Amino acid sequence: MRGFPVWPVEAGHYAGEMDALFIALVIVTVLTAGFVCFLLIFFAARYRAGHAADRSHTIEKTWKWEVGWTTASLLIFVGLAVWGADLYLRLYQPPKNAVQIFVVGKQWMWKAQHPGGQREINELHVPVGRAVRLVMASQDTIHSFYVPALRVKQDVVPGRYESLWFEADRPGRYHLFCAEYCGTDHARMGGWLVVMKPREFAGWLRSQGGQPTLAAQGEQLFHSFGCSGCHGPGGTVRAPDLNGVYGGPVALQDGRVVTADERYVRDSILLPKSEVAAGYDPVMPSFAGQVGEDDLAKLVAYVQSLGNARKGAS
Amino acid sequence: MWTASLGPKPRMSEATPAFQFASVPQQREAATLGMWTFLATEVLFFGALIAAYSAYRIAWPDEIAAAARHTKVALGAINTAVLLTSSAFMASAVAFDEAKRRRPVVLCLLATAVLGLLFIGIKGYEYCLEYQEGLVPALNFQLGRYGGIGELFFLFYFFATGFHAVHLTIGIAMVVMLAVRTGAGHPPHAPVLRMVGLYWHFVDIVWIFLFPLIYLPGRVG
Amino acid sequence: MHGPRPNYLTAETTIRSWLFSTDHKRIALLYFASITFFFLIGGLAAVMIRLELVTPAADLVRPDTYNRLFTMHGVIMVWFFLVPSIPTTLGNFVLPLMLGARDLAFPRLNLASWYFYIAGGALTVLALLLGGVDTGWTFYEPYASAFSNGYVTLAVLGIFLSGFSSILTGLNFIVTTHKLRAPGLTWYRLPLFCWSLYSTSVILVLATPVLAMTLLMLVAERVLGIGIFDPALGGDPLLWQHMFWFYSHPAVYIMVLPAIGIVSELIPAFARKKIFGYKFVAWASVAIAAIGFLVWGHHMFVAGQSLYASLIFSFLSYLVAVPSAIKVFNWVATLHKGWIRFDAPMLYAFGFVGLFTIGGLTGLFLAALAIDVHVTDTYFVIAHFHYIMVGGSVSAFFGGLHYWWPKITGRLYPEGWARAAAILMFFGFNLTFFPQFILGWLGMPRRYDAYPPEFQIWHVLSSAGASTLAVAYAMPLFYFFWSLVWGQRAPANPWGVTGLEWLTSSPPPPRNFDTTPVVIRGPYDYVDGQPRPQAENV
Ligand code: HEA
Ligand code: HEA
Ligand code: CUA
Ligand SMILES: [Cu+2]
Fold first, then answer.
1. Which of B58, B62, B149 to mutate to test the interface with A (most CBs of A within 10 A)?
2. How open is the CA angle B156-B162-B168, to the nearest 5 degrees?
3. pLDDT per residue over C498-526, tens digit each?
4. Which of C68, C174, C201, C507 has an alpha carbon 20 to 30 Å from B97's alpha carbon atom?
């Protein structure tokens, strides 16, 4: 036991503002509840049976009071809620230059893959002062990625990508939890978020051994799964060239236009029939059940790198 | 002497209302309101199923349509007609009862029950066909090419039509009972007949919703 | 030994006359015995949970056992204790009395509802005995169908059966309130408890069938292996959450509205004053029931629903707080210029107002999106709902039980002991659950049997509080039994308050009233602290 902690450590740019909102809510709550309790006790004491007090002229007309007090308290709370909503929306708008790390949750561990190909389990190393965007998937049931020091949490629902971004601003080791119940070792599914100074972080990345980058690993898979047979040059089937697709708008056969983000790429591989690119036959086979979440991440990283390549070139 | 626990059964007798009611009309109103409340419950029971089904229908329009083409739309349509006709007989039974004409009431009730049984028969035949074609989820499902969604469709199909058939069977039992008792000269009183009528129409309406939802996707346009 | 007139307790004495009774008062007692049993099982699980959490390591029970403990705790406390608690016991007993009726509209359905409840409870207990369920009371998918190795199907069918009990009770109350009111008893002359039971019944009737269907789909998925909710088979896990919360959010109002109704009885009764803003309080119950159907998505702010949906659900959650606010303010205003007495029921009512306010206001924290991101699935949520459900509803239940005990049993309970228990319960409660707000804010996730050591101090305090609470809950158990034998006999109206239920003798005769009362004015009519007769012809 170490004393009576009442405030969680703060390690993210977002935590400060959240804490301010929380304090505001606590103040308003204490005032409201305090007001209620004060009146309760005050009336109870003053108007207790047997105690002589002026009881003439009880208030009879009520609606003015009703409407008055209710709107007053409601407005204050809704004001705070708007603040909360604004913060919440920002939590879902990652900056463009964020470092992207793939995270896979499974019973009962978190696995992370860095762009450089480094992998880790139940630990996540990130540099201080850089926006980090996690692209997360689950291999089995729902998990939830939770770092209290950053005040962020996101459920990871199997069958789709969820993303979460943050910017850590204080080096240190912080708890990483799984917050959604996921079975026997739910309580042990977690570890540490390690926030490092940029130089140390670079050192850590290097110390993880020289493996090919995630995109390069994805390129290998692109060949071994046979994607290149269609999408590569001289393919037998008319399939779209994936260069430059990522990040741009894609016209679909049914007339919709969607952005080619990681969700789109993922769905293209697992559910090719759901969003067919305009002008192509829906002949791409589904790879559901053949490509695990780890490999999917690599393929997505590869397709992403193709997107950037074209943009760089043009 | 009256006893607390085994009081007289709340009877629907015209002369004396059950002890908790002050008058016969009050008892009748209570029974009717009770039936409507029960039907509200039923609406949400089927509503939940239809809502879930609709969610998938929106998410996977093509797959659902493809699977739905394996339903037997002709049989479904016939059954719709059968059920609608039965409802007409049910309504007539109520009307004849109000006119205090016993024979026609019995005949109409019997017609209602027979049509209800016919519906169940046709439905059973449909189930047989579907079994032979390998359309029963978890048992012998063979529509693999539509992936899990086809099977999901047929799960909803059997769920919805199955629950509907159970409701209909209960309805048939009640209608037969009414017919027998009326025929034997112990006609139950108007509220009972009207309540069973309400129930019958409700079961009919559920089918009216299920039919287009289940049979028609993939067949129009 | 008994008075000259037979009352409902003495009219017949065989076991059969109890088990097959259609008298709403006897069925209320049947229910009462059953929910007490389930409260003790649920409480036993809570005790085990709190014991395990005294130390950071998982040293008392194995992780799987812990998971089964909180699942059973949640399942039993929600479906077999709190949802049926007030409506089927106090509601069943006093609703017909308050309406001046001889029974509910459908006495046999009332009995059937108890049997459904018992059958459901038996299945759930069987699941428990066979080895339990480890899904959490929310049965989140795909875990519940594809990964859990507990007796999920059995427990789910138990809950399914108990749902019929809910529906039948709700239906019965709705019809009774509409059709069996005594002459002169207009809607605006109804006691507020009737309004709240009516609103509760609407939710019971409309929300429960959705849960029933949802549970059946879960069973189908689990037994047949078809992907309704499992993404590996083409299903959508979020659909489960939508359907579950579509029932379970309204269900939280099933659990609090009757309590709110009791408090609306207790406060005017012990302040000897007309309730402030009767119509507002009455319609607020209906409003809560209605708006309560529109906020379920606030349980899914980080589950991956669309941002747009989250914004709307957040806003609506604030809207649903308005009628609750109206109630709280009106209770307080009722005390103004009253003749306030501090009998045990009133102490519980005071406790309710304070704790419900705290629980409700922290609900507003959760509805403020950004805050929820941090505290969802932590002890903050646990504290929020225990404040309302235990500090609020259970307190109100005890308050109502003390209030109507003389009517139900014909005996007075020992007032000194009762006050002591009420006060002990209040302190024990706060000691148990206030630390959990801090734990949650610190980031302690829920459903954890082991946790980092820095959280320990608050867990120790919480467990200490739970022990206090166990003692406080055990006290009424003893003195209520004591009063059955040695308690003073109760007059018809021991509190000197308004309300038709106090017009008939304590305990009431089998058919409640010798002659049907004719109501001439509304409830809570006190002049200078004295009740005015509410009905004539009695
Ligand atoms: C009886 C039970 C009950 C009741 C009544 C409530 C009432 C409310 N609840 Fe609660 N809640 C639960 C039981 C209950 N809840 C449970 C069991 C869970 C968790 C389930 C699980 O995950 O296992 C939960 C979870 C829960 C969540 C999700 C948390 C999460 O998992 O992330 C949220 C989020 O919005 C929420 C909000 C609210 C709100 C806004 C109310 C409002 O109705 C409260 C209204 C009351 C007041 C506001 C107080 C009185 C008002 C005043 C003193 C006046 C001043 C205020 C204003 C005018 C605004 N609740
Ligand atoms: C609905 C009502 C309800 C009630 C009344 C309670 C009552 C209590 N709950 Fe409840 N609780 C829930 C509903 C309820 N709970 C729900 C829905 C969950 C979520 C489950 C989930 O995550 O799935 C939960 C979860 C939950 C947790 C979180 C577990 C976790 O996430 O890991 C904890 C932890 O402290 C807890 C504690 C308690 C305590 C100490 C009480 C006390 O108030 C209990 C006090 C009662 C007693 C102590 C019994 C009476 C004792 C005697 C008469 C003495 C003699 C008898 C014996 C010793 C058997 N509960
Ligand atoms: Cu993973 Cu909990
Ligand atoms: Cu809710």
1. B62
2. 140
3. 989 999 988 999 888 888 888 888 889 88
4. C174
CATH code linked to domain A214-312: 1.10.760.10
Whether C198 is covered by a domain: the verdict is yes
Nearest CA in chain C to B160: C213
Amino acid residing at C510? P
CATH code for position C20: 1.20.210.10
The upper half-sphere exposure of residue A242, i.e. CA atoms within 13 Å in the direction of its Cβ, equals 23
Least confident of A164-178, A279-293, B78-92: A279-293
Q: Which candidate, A231, A211, A8, A10, places its Cα nearest to that of A115? A: A211
Which ipTM did the prediction report? 0.91
- Rounded distance between C-alpha atoms, residue C138 and residue C299, angstroms: 11
CA distance A313 to A311: 5
For A8-37+73-210, CATH gives: 2.60.40.420
User: Domain B23-215 classified CATH 3.40.50.620?
Assistant: no
Q: What are phi and psi of B7, to 5 degrees?
A: -60, 170
pLDDT tens digits, C427-477: 999 999 999 999 999 999 999 999 999 999 999 999 999 999 999 999 999
pTM score, whole prediction: 0.93
What residue ranges do the domains of chain B occupy?
Answer: 23-215
Ligand 2 — pocket residues by CB below 6 A?
Answer: C 40, 43-44, 46-47, 49-50, 70-71, 73-74, 77-78, 82, 136-137, 382, 386, 389-390, 394, 432, 446-448, 462, 466, 469-470, 473-474, 477
Q: Tell whether A256 lies on the interface with B, counting CB pairs under 8 A.
A: no
Q: What total of structural domains would you count in chain C? A: 1
For residue B22, give both structure tokens.
């002050």
| Chain C interface includes B220 (CB < 8 A) | no
Residue C203, in any domain of the structure = yes
